[in-house]
Amino acid sequence: MNYIRHLNSIFLLFTKDSRLNPTHVSLYMAFFQLWNHNRFPKQFYVNREEVMKLSKIGSKSTYHRCLKELDHYKYLIYFPSHNPFKGSQIKMLIFGTTSGQALDLAVPNQGQALVPLYKHNKQIENINKLDQPKNQKVVDEFFKSQNWPDIESKKFYNHYQGIGWKVGGKTKIVNWQATAQNWMLKAEEIKKKETPIAVSQIRDNLKTTKDKNYNQPL
């Protein structure tokens, strides 16, 4: 995960997304700071009071509303906890980073040179649009880089290609890679809910012998 490319991409998305207000941005950056502090794990626990302090949000209702909207807009995934002794969890979706980029996040780069602002602007302009993939091959490569099943790649592409790359057929997708991550999370949840038939049960029901004597009465 290259956090510089991630921030460049996320700020570009912020400028295009008219649904967001300063509170959304402030809350997201508070989560990013905690994500950074925890060395960018897949998921991490959060304390509401700590996040509200970091984001300068004074209202609990505003905090929960903006958090749910960031989840709905596919900037992150929110796992609420109904246990007062156990905090909620956040999964930060990764933007603007390819699998071929490596970055050692455990050791900060003290010698990193500052880049002029106009060069950053050029880099942002050159970032590929993330609203939808060019073709099936791009989706297959992304799923392969995440070690996800090839069949899910086909199902994901065919589904959103058929509805014009819109969530619920109405809202245009902002970032298809984030949508793919959410797709796989739901696929894993569905898989867990399915109850497979025990192998031992199948074997018991299929007990037969090849040398059965059909002259004997049943």
Automatic annotation (TrEMBL):
Name this polypeptide is given: Uncharacterized protein
Organism the protein comes from: Formosa maritima
